Amino acid sequence: MSAALQYCAMPLTRHTDKCRDPSWLKQQLASDAATVVVLWAQQNMIRLVDDNPQPVYLPISEAALILGNAKEVIYLGHQDQSPVFAADLAYLDEKEAVRILHHAAPGTTMMELRQISSVLDPETASLFAYARGLAYWHQQNTFCSRCGGEMRSQQGGHCRCCSQCEKELFPRIDPAVIMLIECKSSKDGVTRCLLGRSTKWEKKVYSTLAGYVDTGESLEQAVIREVQEEAGLKVSSNPVYVASQPWPFPGSVMLGFRAQTLDSAIQVDNDELSDARWFSRDQLQSIIDDTDNEEGLLLPSKDSIARMLIDTWIAEGGQDEAN
Ligand SMILES: [Zn+2]
């Protein structure tokens, strides 16, 4: 199921075991087949062709200026026989970054991945997401949390090591659970799902509830706690794992679940959600079709696991009715 999710079609072989060998990494960077994807300010470099974003894999022979100005150069992996690197122009101001791009790769520009992922091929969207996540991790770990010393990239960008105390740090992601909660009404027999609107969203987007996994907590416990905290509902079934999705926006993996509740009386935590409601499959289909949708409600973007959980649930409707 996860193969259909955006950002899950990674085309690279990572060769993590070889990244400890500096001479091997040096060989890859010197390979004529090597290419470079470029990042700046958590945006990915693309080329607009007739207003359509096209991915840019810069040949290594054309990347000297970019590599010379990059804060980090990260080995991402091999696509077939070609080593692929990411170069992050982090810490350059916009004017300087634009100047370098103009000289190194004329006609290119930087764009936020989530704005363009729907028109990129799934492999590129996955690779760009991976590069973005690693670049962010480097930016967030400039200094050692133990002694305050400067952290330096090692192992092709897959480790950072303190220049003073030699503490090693490896790329970390924050696990977050995301769950579609169902409730079958005892009044009309209709099964509905719970969607909430985050206080952070200006648009009227209603999505599945989600939250970070706490220390000392299983994924299932996190699902139960988040539903209780955000909507005041008691989960009545064991949460069932559905699928996962890398979510480097900026540094998570989303772990999708399905669970049920017998309790339909929502009590919204207004620190997290401005609203939460029960939606029938027909109501959600009306939002998608934008018919009978006077409030102008929206569902989450199609690149998200939230949308996959919702779409999968809607598609099960015929089966549910038959039962
Ligand atoms: Zn240190």
Q: How would you sum up the global shape?
A: globular
Cα-based radius of gyration, to the nearest Å: 22 Å
Small molecules bound: zinc ion
**Overall SS class:** alpha+beta
Order of helices and strands: HEEEEHEEHEHHEEEEEEHEEEHHH
H/I helix tally: 9
Percent in helix = 25-40%
The average pLDDT value, as a whole number, equals 94
Count of separate structural domains: 2
Secondary-structure arrangement, i.e. CATH architecture of the largest domain: Alpha-Beta Complex
List segments where confidence is low: pLDDT < 50 over at least 5 consecutive residues.
none
What is the C-level CATH assignment of the largest domain? Alpha Beta
Distance between the termini: 23 Å
- CATH-assigned fold name of the largest domain: Nucleoside Triphosphate Pyrophosphohydrolase
Beta-strand fraction estimate: 25-35%
The biggest beta sheet is recorded as: 7 strands, mixed
Work out the number of β strands.
16
> Any idea what the CATH superfamily of the largest domain is called?
Nucleoside Triphosphate Pyrophosphohydrolase
